[in-house]
Design goal:
Blueprint (H helix, E strand, L loop, with lengths): L24 H4 L3 H8 L3 E4 L4 H11 L3 H4 L9 E6 L2 E6 L7 H6 L3 H7 L1
């Protein structure tokens, strides 16, 4: 499998040679190549995770139950940062009335407003 390919194959909704990678931890870790990349990462930016994925990540990364609350039904801009052996919970309330926010947003309803 090449980087950028989904371990389960391509999305049936897409045609042609489109490749993607999934956000699902179970899928990612089913690939030895992706698992090696994950294990050698010094920096991880983790947002909201499904229950099964949280359990896997808690075991693999040593996340405490208190820290898991930052990736359990969390809102936009909330999560955990991993840098080496340090885990930092964060809540980022990025100001929406800035040019930078307008350029970075991925919310379709906000992108339409910005055109």
């Amino acid at each position: 499998m090449k980087m950028g390919e989904s371990p389960g194959g391509t999305d049936k909704k897409l045609s042609g040679n489109h490749k993607q990678i999934t956000q699902n931890v179970k899928d990612l870790l089913s690939s030895a190549e992706i698992e090696n990349i994950f294990e050698n990462s010094d920096y991880i930016y983790m947002l909201n995770q499904a229950q099964g994925d949280r359990e896997i990540l808690a075991k693999r990364l040593g996340i405490s139950p208190q820290q898991l609350s930052y990736v359990t039904q969390s809102g936009a801009g909330e999560g955990l940062l991993f840098y080496g052996n340090t885990i930092i919970p964060f809540i980022d309330r990025f100001p929406k009335d800035t040019k930078l926010y307008q350029l970075m947003t991925t919310k379709p309803e906000e992108m339409i407003q910005n055109e």
